[in-house]
Amino acid sequence: MKTINNSKSWTDLSAPVTNKMVHWPGEPEVSVCKLFDMNKGGPANVTILSMSAHTGTHMDAPLHFIKNGKDISMFPIDMMIGPARIIEIKHDRFIPLEEVQQHEINPNERVIFKTKNSSSDWPKQEFKRDYIYLSLEAAGYLKEKKVSVVGVDYISVGGKDNGKAVHEMLLGNEIWVIEGLYLNGIKPGLYEMICMPVKIKDSDGAPARVIVRKI
Amino acid sequence: MKTINNSKSWTDLSAPVTNKMVHWPGEPEVSVCKLFDMNKGGPANVTILSMSAHTGTHMDAPLHFIKNGKDISMFPIDMMIGPARIIEIKHDRFIPLEEVQQHEINPNERVIFKTKNSSSDWPKQEFKRDYIYLSLEAAGYLKEKKVSVVGVDYISVGGKDNGKAVHEMLLGNEIWVIEGLYLNGIKPGLYEMICMPVKIKDSDGAPARVIVRKI
Fold first, then answer.
1. pLDDT-based confidence at A3, cuts 50/70/90?
2. Residues of A in contact with B28 (CB under 8 A)
3. Do B87 and B189 form a contact (C-beta atoms < 8 A)?
4. If 0-12 CB within 10 Å is exposed, 13-18 middle and 19+ buried, where does residue A148 land?
5. Which pLDDT value is given to residue A5?
6. Residue A86 and residue A186: Cα distance in Å, rounded?
7. Which member of A32, A192, A196 has the closest CB to residue B209?
């Protein structure tokens, strides 16, 4: 069997998790703090994490918005690895149906949207109310096209007014969601992607590590 | 470029993260709880995590025991993917030099030890004081052989009495450590492995997702 050819280098799409980083309003602050600190005489450095499962670069499981839906530990391993297409969106308020329709979307595709969100270093900044989100029309189109994974470059795929509906449209149709992808400097195009969420049982989401390389 | 051949299926070596799962004595309890719960009238399910960065299947960065050492966000992407050898250890108290020496260990190898720890469903059980750990002599040998990664099947690579010394021997020599691998039912042999820790800046460790397939 061919093993993974590692000659072409990978790029990390994961936002660094940091103390007090941006988080969804209404969720507790992200805390990354040392229980033991060698610089303060501790026997070792031991970091304690306290945060929403939906922090930074993370995945949403159907359970996030679907009662008794699949939890994040059920994300199939085979779906963690494979081609992904990064599509650039020009619209400056949301991801409109018309722009998505310009691309031929195929069944089982992993589709990632790069928007104006990626023009700022958002993981280090305060929560921005005017982030670019997926329109419900575009979500419905992706559902019709039977994509397998949708990824976005801010911490929610849906907007303030359509968040519940967009999540339900995707997660209710077994489309898994990656949020908080760090796409600054990444060119649109076809990539090979590995996306691995932490295996948290019964959880609606989990922090994930995501890497890509050009195909 | 050849993309990853996904025809042969992967096996998950990651222990599920669960509420109140086993943790290192002296570290706070693992908490995986819902801030919002649809079964209790919540608008969505939203899980909050609170735990040591050294929970379940996780990686140790040099910073865990080396002042100003590399943190877990510096684990090189190229080291996340590649061959790994799972070696079975018969000794029932620790991993002795003599058993490790029976295997030809090569520079840059990822070496994973499967011990008696994997005969119990340890992630669901109380902390066990008599877990099998790496002897300092075997750690020194792995350092001499210049391996790149060492993995073990309990939540610490070192024992009660040699924990600090074993960690320093490995982490102080740029050998990265995977702890808490779930190897129940896994056969020894040569595998291809993907090991991706959450990218936590300035952290001494991070939960990781680890998968393998036979080469």
1. low
2. 35, 48
3. no
4. middle
5. 67
6. 9
7. A196
Nearest Cβ partner for B48 among A4, A9, A28: A28
List, for residues B102-135, the tens digit of each pLDDT value.
999 999 999 999 999 999 999 999 999 999 999 9
Total CB pairs under 8 A between chain A and B: 212
How distant is the Cα of B80 from the closest Cα of chain A, in angstroms? Answer: 10
What interface predicted TM-score (ipTM) does this complex get? Answer: 0.96
What is the percent of chain A with per-residue pLDDT over 70, rounded to a whole number? 96
**Percent of the residues in chain B that have a pLDDT greater than 70, as a whole number:** 96
Residue A162 C-alpha, separation from nearest chain B C-alpha, in angstroms: 13
A-chain residues within 8 Å CB-CB of B198? 14, 17, 198, 207-209
Question: Of B165, B212, B211, B209, which is closest to residue B59 (Cα–Cα)?
Answer: B209
pLDDT at residue B148 tops 90 = yes
Question: Is A199's CB within 8 Å of B167's CB?
Answer: no
Residue type, B109: E
Full set of structural domains in chain A with CATH = 11-214 (3.50.30.50)
